[in-house]
Amino acid sequence: MTTITILQEIVKKGDLVIIPRQEYEELLKRQKVIPVAKLTLAEKKVLERSRKEMARGEYVTLEELQSVARRKRM
Asked: Would you kindly state where each structural domain of the chain is located, as residue ranges?
């Protein structure tokens, strides 16, 4: 049996992810295929505002949105 020691500092930050090597290698392959989008300053501001709204609970669920759309069609 293999035993590993993980520093408490890493665990406390929540930065630890453990996956099998094969899955990790597949992730690396896909990362090369999927381009990473670079946000503009305006996009970063909108994203930050959206995250704050989500944290405050200021959003609608997909179900609520569909309900509104159905009512408008009638």
From this structure: 8-73
